[in-house]
From TrEMBL:
Species in which this protein is naturally found: Castellaniella daejeonensis
Its EC number(s): 1.-.-.-
Family: Belongs to the nitroreductase family.
Stored Gene3D superfamilies: NADH Oxidase
Keywords from the UniProt entry: Flavoprotein, FMN, NAD, NADP, Oxidoreductase
Protein name: Putative NAD(P)H nitroreductase
Enzyme class: oxidoreductase
Cofactor or coenzyme needed: FMN
UniProt cross-references to InterPro entries, sorted A to Z: NAD(P)H_nitroreductase, Nitroreductase, Nitroreductase-like, YdjA-like
Superkingdom of origin: Bacteria
Nitroreductase domain: residues covered: 10-165
Keyword Oxidoreductase set for record: yes
Amino acid sequence: MSAFFDVLLGRQSVKFVQAPGPTDEQLDLILQAALRAPDHGAVRPWRFVLVRGADVPALVDVGVRAGIAAGTPLPQPKVDNARKWLSKVPLVIALGCRPDPSGRIPEHESLLAVGAAAMNMLNAAHALGLGAFWSTGIGVYLDGVGEALGFDALDERFMGYLAIGTPIDTPDPVQRPDWRDHVSEWHAPAPA
């Protein structure tokens, strides 16, 4: 098996990371990888906001305020866990999507393109020896969080966060399902 597949098949989510985060050169590679994702119609729907260092823990406060404003405050244990987690994370990349404003390309294709970009970033971080985790917590689905991060509420969709840094611990291997349990094969019907 090639080294490429060793890296690809060895990737797993690593939630608990710490400094150092990616260097500028590594971040450049991670973001270049993101923009290699498929993009039907060259819409370029990707929007990323970098949150670094001391600004990272403030993301919890944004989610808390949005929950209060929505009348659904985040449970205190969830807030406490998010604060503890983000207190060590050196870099968060907020993910946004700006679908085709003309409507020519269906919105779901732009959302898939951003998802593919996120996966490319996760793979790139792993290939560089970093840990990374995609989170849709901390108020991602609450009004106001995306806007607080600079995403346009009318034209863009906030899709979550990628936390990237140096793994705190060596992650335990993950038991993956057998691909055969998730794949079927289609055959054309016999001519009538």
